[in-house]
Amino acid sequence: xxxxxxxxxxxxxxxxxxxxxxxxxxxxxxxxxxxxxxxxxxxxxxxxxxxxxxxxxxxxxxxxxxxxxxxxxxxxxxxxxxxxxxxxxxxxxxxxxxxxxxxxxxxxxxxxxxxxxxxxxxxxxxxxxxxxxxxxxxxxxxxxxxxxxxxxxxxxxxxxxxxxxxxxxxxxxxxxxxxxxxxxxxxxxxxxxxxxxxxxxxxxxxxxxxxxxxxxxxxxxxxxxxxxxxxxxxxxxxxxxxxxxxxxxxxxxxxxx
Length: 257
Description:
Blueprint: H1 15-29, H2 35-48, H3 63-79, H4 92-102, H5 107-114, H6 118-132, H7 137-146, H8 152-155, H9 169-185, E1 191-196, H10 199-210, E2 223-227, E3 235-241
Antiparallel strand pairs: 1-3, 2-3
Helix pairs in contact: 1-2, 1-3, 4-5, 4-6, 4-7, 5-6
Protein backbone atom coordinates (compact mmCIF):
# COMPACT_ATOMS: atom_id res chain seq x y z
CA UNK A 1 0.00 0.00 0.00
CA UNK A 2 1.21 3.53 -0.77
CA UNK A 3 2.73 5.73 1.95
CA UNK A 4 0.12 8.44 2.55
CA UNK A 5 2.34 11.10 4.07
CA UNK A 6 -0.20 13.93 3.96
CA UNK A 7 -3.09 11.97 5.49
CA UNK A 8 -1.76 8.61 6.77
CA UNK A 9 -5.04 7.82 8.51
CA UNK A 10 -6.91 7.98 5.18
CA UNK A 11 -5.28 4.70 4.10
CA UNK A 12 -7.60 2.92 6.54
CA UNK A 13 -10.76 4.24 4.86
CA UNK A 14 -13.00 1.95 2.83
CA UNK A 15 -14.12 3.03 -0.67
CA UNK A 16 -17.16 5.02 0.51
CA UNK A 17 -15.27 6.80 3.28
CA UNK A 18 -12.41 7.69 0.95
CA UNK A 19 -14.78 8.93 -1.75
CA UNK A 20 -16.56 11.19 0.74
CA UNK A 21 -13.26 12.54 2.07
CA UNK A 22 -11.93 13.29 -1.43
CA UNK A 23 -15.11 15.02 -2.52
CA UNK A 24 -15.29 17.22 0.58
CA UNK A 25 -11.57 18.01 0.50
CA UNK A 26 -11.60 19.06 -3.11
CA UNK A 27 -14.69 21.14 -2.60
CA UNK A 28 -12.92 23.02 0.19
CA UNK A 29 -9.52 23.36 -1.51
CA UNK A 30 -10.98 24.59 -4.80
CA UNK A 31 -12.12 27.92 -3.40
CA UNK A 32 -10.37 31.24 -3.87
CA UNK A 33 -6.95 31.69 -2.28
CA UNK A 34 -7.25 33.02 1.25
CA UNK A 35 -7.98 32.29 4.89
CA UNK A 36 -11.56 31.22 4.21
CA UNK A 37 -10.31 28.38 1.99
CA UNK A 38 -7.72 27.41 4.59
CA UNK A 39 -10.40 27.24 7.27
CA UNK A 40 -12.65 25.15 5.01
CA UNK A 41 -9.83 22.66 4.37
CA UNK A 42 -9.08 22.36 8.09
CA UNK A 43 -12.77 21.81 8.84
CA UNK A 44 -12.98 18.96 6.32
CA UNK A 45 -9.87 17.28 7.71
CA UNK A 46 -11.16 17.63 11.26
CA UNK A 47 -14.51 16.16 10.26
CA UNK A 48 -13.07 13.09 8.52
CA UNK A 49 -9.98 12.45 10.69
CA UNK A 50 -10.45 9.58 13.14
CA UNK A 51 -10.47 10.67 16.78
CA UNK A 52 -7.29 8.71 17.44
CA UNK A 53 -5.33 10.30 14.59
CA UNK A 54 -3.17 13.40 14.83
CA UNK A 55 -2.42 15.90 12.10
CA UNK A 56 -0.14 18.95 12.14
CA UNK A 57 -1.63 22.42 11.83
CA UNK A 58 -1.90 23.60 8.24
CA UNK A 59 -0.55 26.97 7.09
CA UNK A 60 -1.95 29.07 4.26
CA UNK A 61 1.14 28.35 2.16
CA UNK A 62 0.23 24.66 1.77
CA UNK A 63 -3.47 25.03 0.81
CA UNK A 64 -2.72 24.75 -2.92
CA UNK A 65 -0.33 21.84 -2.30
CA UNK A 66 -3.16 19.79 -0.78
CA UNK A 67 -4.83 19.31 -4.16
CA UNK A 68 -1.60 18.01 -5.69
CA UNK A 69 -0.95 15.65 -2.77
CA UNK A 70 -4.46 14.25 -2.91
CA UNK A 71 -4.12 13.58 -6.62
CA UNK A 72 -0.71 11.94 -6.32
CA UNK A 73 -1.29 9.92 -3.16
CA UNK A 74 -5.00 9.18 -2.78
CA UNK A 75 -6.60 9.11 -6.21
CA UNK A 76 -4.65 6.05 -7.48
CA UNK A 77 -5.78 4.18 -4.37
CA UNK A 78 -9.33 5.46 -4.76
CA UNK A 79 -9.50 4.46 -8.43
CA UNK A 80 -8.57 0.91 -7.53
CA UNK A 81 -11.38 0.75 -4.99
CA UNK A 82 -14.21 2.09 -7.13
CA UNK A 83 -14.22 5.59 -5.63
CA UNK A 84 -15.47 8.81 -7.21
CA UNK A 85 -14.16 10.42 -10.42
CA UNK A 86 -11.29 12.91 -10.45
CA UNK A 87 -12.32 16.10 -8.62
CA UNK A 88 -11.70 19.47 -10.25
CA UNK A 89 -8.36 21.03 -9.20
CA UNK A 90 -9.41 24.53 -10.28
CA UNK A 91 -10.72 27.27 -8.04
CA UNK A 92 -14.25 28.55 -8.58
CA UNK A 93 -13.01 31.65 -10.39
CA UNK A 94 -10.56 29.70 -12.55
CA UNK A 95 -13.33 27.35 -13.66
CA UNK A 96 -15.72 30.24 -14.34
CA UNK A 97 -13.12 31.91 -16.55
CA UNK A 98 -12.37 28.65 -18.36
CA UNK A 99 -16.10 28.15 -19.03
CA UNK A 100 -16.36 31.63 -20.57
CA UNK A 101 -13.31 30.92 -22.73
CA UNK A 102 -14.87 27.60 -23.76
CA UNK A 103 -17.92 29.58 -24.94
CA UNK A 104 -15.64 31.46 -27.32
CA UNK A 105 -15.33 34.60 -25.22
CA UNK A 106 -12.17 36.70 -25.18
CA UNK A 107 -10.54 37.75 -21.91
CA UNK A 108 -12.28 41.11 -22.27
CA UNK A 109 -15.77 39.76 -22.94
CA UNK A 110 -15.34 37.03 -20.30
CA UNK A 111 -14.43 39.75 -17.81
CA UNK A 112 -17.54 41.70 -18.73
CA UNK A 113 -19.70 38.62 -18.15
CA UNK A 114 -18.07 37.85 -14.80
CA UNK A 115 -17.59 41.40 -13.55
CA UNK A 116 -13.79 41.12 -13.70
CA UNK A 117 -11.01 43.07 -15.34
CA UNK A 118 -9.45 41.62 -18.50
CA UNK A 119 -6.09 41.07 -16.77
CA UNK A 120 -7.80 39.28 -13.88
CA UNK A 121 -9.42 36.84 -16.29
CA UNK A 122 -6.07 36.31 -18.02
CA UNK A 123 -4.42 35.59 -14.66
CA UNK A 124 -7.09 33.05 -13.65
CA UNK A 125 -6.83 31.39 -17.07
CA UNK A 126 -3.06 31.06 -16.85
CA UNK A 127 -3.35 29.58 -13.36
CA UNK A 128 -5.88 27.07 -14.68
CA UNK A 129 -3.55 26.06 -17.51
CA UNK A 130 -0.70 25.62 -15.03
CA UNK A 131 -2.79 23.45 -12.70
CA UNK A 132 -3.89 21.27 -15.63
CA UNK A 133 -0.33 21.18 -17.00
CA UNK A 134 -1.33 22.47 -20.43
CA UNK A 135 -0.16 25.38 -22.56
CA UNK A 136 -3.47 26.72 -23.84
CA UNK A 137 -7.23 26.91 -23.63
CA UNK A 138 -8.11 24.16 -26.15
CA UNK A 139 -6.40 21.42 -24.15
CA UNK A 140 -7.62 22.84 -20.83
CA UNK A 141 -11.24 22.85 -22.02
CA UNK A 142 -10.87 19.31 -23.42
CA UNK A 143 -9.62 18.04 -20.06
CA UNK A 144 -12.35 19.87 -18.13
CA UNK A 145 -15.11 18.53 -20.38
CA UNK A 146 -13.65 15.00 -20.31
CA UNK A 147 -13.72 14.90 -16.50
CA UNK A 148 -17.14 16.54 -16.27
CA UNK A 149 -15.92 19.75 -14.64
CA UNK A 150 -17.53 21.66 -17.52
CA UNK A 151 -20.97 20.45 -18.55
CA UNK A 152 -23.17 20.93 -21.60
CA UNK A 153 -25.37 23.20 -19.51
CA UNK A 154 -22.34 25.38 -18.63
CA UNK A 155 -21.63 25.89 -22.32
CA UNK A 156 -25.28 26.43 -23.33
CA UNK A 157 -24.83 24.02 -26.24
CA UNK A 158 -27.78 23.52 -28.58
CA UNK A 159 -29.48 20.13 -28.72
CA UNK A 160 -29.12 20.25 -32.48
CA UNK A 161 -27.26 22.35 -35.01
CA UNK A 162 -29.50 24.04 -37.53
CA UNK A 163 -28.19 24.75 -41.04
CA UNK A 164 -26.45 28.11 -41.25
CA UNK A 165 -28.83 30.08 -43.43
CA UNK A 166 -27.41 33.37 -44.68
CA UNK A 167 -29.99 36.04 -45.41
CA UNK A 168 -29.62 38.58 -48.18
CA UNK A 169 -29.09 42.28 -47.36
CA UNK A 170 -32.67 42.97 -48.46
CA UNK A 171 -33.97 40.30 -46.09
CA UNK A 172 -32.02 41.85 -43.19
CA UNK A 173 -33.32 45.30 -44.08
CA UNK A 174 -36.85 43.94 -43.86
CA UNK A 175 -36.18 42.38 -40.45
CA UNK A 176 -34.59 45.56 -39.07
CA UNK A 177 -37.37 47.74 -40.51
CA UNK A 178 -39.97 45.66 -38.67
CA UNK A 179 -38.00 45.56 -35.41
CA UNK A 180 -37.31 49.29 -35.44
CA UNK A 181 -40.99 50.09 -35.99
CA UNK A 182 -41.96 47.88 -33.04
CA UNK A 183 -39.34 49.50 -30.82
CA UNK A 184 -40.44 53.03 -31.76
CA UNK A 185 -44.04 52.19 -30.90
CA UNK A 186 -42.91 50.92 -27.47
CA UNK A 187 -40.37 53.52 -26.40
CA UNK A 188 -37.91 52.57 -23.63
CA UNK A 189 -38.99 48.92 -23.74
CA UNK A 190 -36.25 46.36 -24.38
CA UNK A 191 -37.12 43.93 -27.19
CA UNK A 192 -35.34 41.18 -29.09
CA UNK A 193 -33.93 42.27 -32.44
CA UNK A 194 -32.34 39.06 -33.81
CA UNK A 195 -29.96 36.23 -32.89
CA UNK A 196 -26.59 35.59 -34.53
CA UNK A 197 -24.36 32.57 -34.87
CA UNK A 198 -21.17 34.37 -33.78
CA UNK A 199 -20.31 36.76 -31.01
CA UNK A 200 -18.57 39.07 -33.52
CA UNK A 201 -21.68 39.47 -35.70
CA UNK A 202 -23.91 40.13 -32.71
CA UNK A 203 -21.49 42.71 -31.33
CA UNK A 204 -21.24 44.46 -34.71
CA UNK A 205 -25.03 44.67 -35.04
CA UNK A 206 -25.38 46.15 -31.54
CA UNK A 207 -22.73 48.76 -32.37
CA UNK A 208 -24.44 49.61 -35.67
CA UNK A 209 -27.82 50.01 -33.99
CA UNK A 210 -26.40 52.32 -31.32
CA UNK A 211 -24.54 54.29 -33.98
CA UNK A 212 -27.58 54.65 -36.26
CA UNK A 213 -25.85 52.78 -39.08
CA UNK A 214 -29.05 51.01 -40.15
CA UNK A 215 -31.62 53.04 -42.11
CA UNK A 216 -34.39 52.44 -39.58
CA UNK A 217 -32.30 52.87 -36.43
CA UNK A 218 -31.01 56.40 -37.03
CA UNK A 219 -29.88 58.81 -35.87
CA UNK A 220 -26.96 57.79 -33.67
CA UNK A 221 -28.10 57.54 -30.07
CA UNK A 222 -31.78 57.06 -30.88
CA UNK A 223 -31.55 53.39 -29.83
CA UNK A 224 -29.68 51.49 -27.16
CA UNK A 225 -28.57 47.94 -28.00
CA UNK A 226 -26.70 45.18 -26.20
CA UNK A 227 -25.80 41.52 -26.41
CA UNK A 228 -27.70 39.04 -24.25
CA UNK A 229 -26.53 35.77 -22.71
CA UNK A 230 -25.90 33.11 -25.35
CA UNK A 231 -28.98 30.96 -25.95
CA UNK A 232 -28.90 27.58 -27.71
CA UNK A 233 -25.57 28.45 -29.31
CA UNK A 234 -26.78 31.81 -30.67
CA UNK A 235 -25.98 35.35 -29.50
CA UNK A 236 -29.18 37.43 -29.18
CA UNK A 237 -29.21 41.23 -29.49
CA UNK A 238 -31.87 43.35 -27.83
CA UNK A 239 -32.57 47.07 -28.22
CA UNK A 240 -34.86 49.87 -27.08
CA UNK A 241 -35.87 53.23 -28.53
CA UNK A 242 -34.84 56.17 -26.35
CA UNK A 243 -35.68 59.08 -28.67
CA UNK A 244 -34.57 60.93 -31.80
CA UNK A 245 -35.70 61.55 -35.36
CA UNK A 246 -35.21 59.05 -38.18
CA UNK A 247 -32.45 59.77 -40.70
CA UNK A 248 -31.09 57.70 -43.55
CA UNK A 249 -27.71 55.99 -43.38
CA UNK A 250 -25.98 53.13 -45.10
CA UNK A 251 -26.76 49.87 -43.33
CA UNK A 252 -24.21 47.16 -42.58
CA UNK A 253 -26.33 44.08 -43.23
CA UNK A 254 -23.65 41.42 -42.89
CA UNK A 255 -25.38 39.02 -40.48
CA UNK A 256 -26.57 35.46 -40.17
CA UNK A 257 -29.11 33.48 -38.12
